[in-house]
């Protein structure tokens, strides 16, 4: 059964401006530990890809927070929610998925929820869509 649906569109130029204004404090506030490492690696090789990565993660977390009906309030925090990608060799290699931490993970699992997330980006925009299902155990 569908628990919630969320979508978000993010202006990549706004993310770039935030990076220019706040430096690494901005991604450190928005990205989880694993995401931060990916962002740094991508940004070091291709600065624009680093900005796009940050924008897609920002957008995906917004979409997820809408799907669970919580917005950005506890236990939903930027850093307790990470968006990872399935590794090479996995049947759905590259597919994004949620990795939750701390109180958010406990809250989510206690309600027997499962999330599906997708992200996309173009030059000026990043967009995300999230469907959260209630999947009670038999």
UniProtKB/TrEMBL annotation:
Domain 4'-phosphopantetheinyl transferase residue range list: 4-130
Annotated Mg(2+) binding sites: 8, 62
Record Gene3D superfamilies: 4'-phosphopantetheinyl transferase domain (3.90.470.20)
Membrane-spanning residues: none
Cofactor(s) required for function per UniProt: Mg(2+)
Sorted UniProt keywords: Cytoplasm, Fatty acid biosynthesis, Fatty acid metabolism, Lipid biosynthesis, Lipid metabolism, Magnesium, Metal-binding, Transferase
Cellular compartment(s): Cytoplasm
Keyword Magnesium included in the entry's annotation: yes
Cytoplasm in keyword set: yes
Catalytic activity: apo-[ACP] + CoA = holo-[ACP] + adenosine 3',5'-bisphosphate + H(+)
E.C. code: 2.7.8.7
InterPro entries: 4-PPantetheinyl_Trfase_dom (IPR008278), 4-PPantetheinyl_Trfase_dom_sf (IPR037143), ACPS (IPR002582), Ppantetheine-prot_Trfase_dom (IPR004568)
One term under GO cellular component: cytoplasm
Pfam hit, one: ACPS
Family as reported in the entry's similarity comment: Belongs to the P-Pant transferase superfamily. AcpS family.
Function: Transfers the 4'-phosphopantetheine moiety from coenzyme A to a Ser of acyl-carrier-protein.
The protein, known as: Holo-[acyl-carrier-protein] synthase
Encoding gene, per UniProt annotation: acpS
